[in-house]
Amino acid sequence: MFPQDTPRLPAQRAVEVHQPTPLTPAVAVPAPVVPVQPAIVPTVASVVLPDGRIITGYAVSPVQPEPIAAKPAVSRAAVNVALGGVGFLAVCGGLLLLTTFITALTALITQLITLAAVLFGGFIAVQVLTTGRHGGGTTVNIRKAVIKRNHFHR
User: Fold this and answer.
1) Dihedral sign of CA atoms 145, 147, 148, 151 in order
2) 51: how many CB neighbours lie within 10 A of its CB?
3) pLDDT on residue 150
4) Which of 44, 66, 149, 150 gets the highest tally of CB atoms within 10 A of its CB?
5) Average confidence score pLDDT of the chain
6) Which of 56, 60, 31, 30 has the alpha carbon at shortest distance from 45?
7) CB–CB of 122/114 below 8 Å?
8) Distance of CA 3 to CAs 7, 9, 14, 15, 16, Å?
9) CA 146 → CA 30, 93, 128, 139, 152, distances in Å?
10) Amino acid 14: pLDDT
11) What is the Cβ-side half-sphere exposure of residue 147, based on CA atoms within 13 angstroms?
12) Is the pLDDT of residue 126 over 80?
């Protein structure tokens, strides 16, 4: 990087300085000013302020906005098609909600029937399993009993 035979401190570095080359400015030729008399001379208005000062100036008329173009009328057929489409979407959404409600109601009824079956089965199981232990039920020996007109006789 540095030649070996030149004594320099380690912090010194070779620096090249580039001077910018100035551009020659373009000569702007001003357009000739031609005085033109206005077609209508505006009126000058003077206003006296409450403190006695007088202000003189031109009256400025407000800018009138351009008239809004009339919108074309929408045909009745287009309105009917749009309303028909909205009605069709409403009916489809209603049917979707109805089928969802019916499905949920069916699932609820199925769960209630299953719950009733489990409770009834549990009640029967408790009755069957507890009668043998406590001896509180009526035990009938069918082999020894004689059935006459729907009555048991021994």
Assistant:
1) positive
2) 5
3) 56
4) 44
5) 77
6) 56
7) no
8) 9, 13, 11, 14, 16
9) 140, 69, 25, 15, 6
10) 66
11) 5
12) yes
Task: Give the model confidence (pLDDT) of 6-63 as tens digits.
Answer: 665 555 566 677 777 776 776 777 777 777 776 776 677 788 888 988 888 877 777 7
Structure tokens at 73: 């009328």
Tokens 């380690």 correspond to: 10
CA 151 to chain centre: 78
Q: Is 50 exposed, middle or buried (0-12, 13-18, 19+ CB in 10 A)?
A: exposed
pLDDT at position 81 over 70:
yes
Report residue 15 as tokens.
């620096």
Give percent above pLDDT 70 in the chain: 69
Q: Are 55 and 49 in contact (CB under 8 A)?
A: yes
Distance CA 145, CA 154 (A): 5
Cα(first)–Cα(last) distance of the chain, in Å? 130
Name the one residue in this structure whose structure tokens are 């570095």.
Answer: 13
pTM value is 0.34
Measuring CA to CA, how many Å separate 45 from each of 57, 64, 113? Answer: 5, 21, 95
Tokens found for residue 151: 């009555």
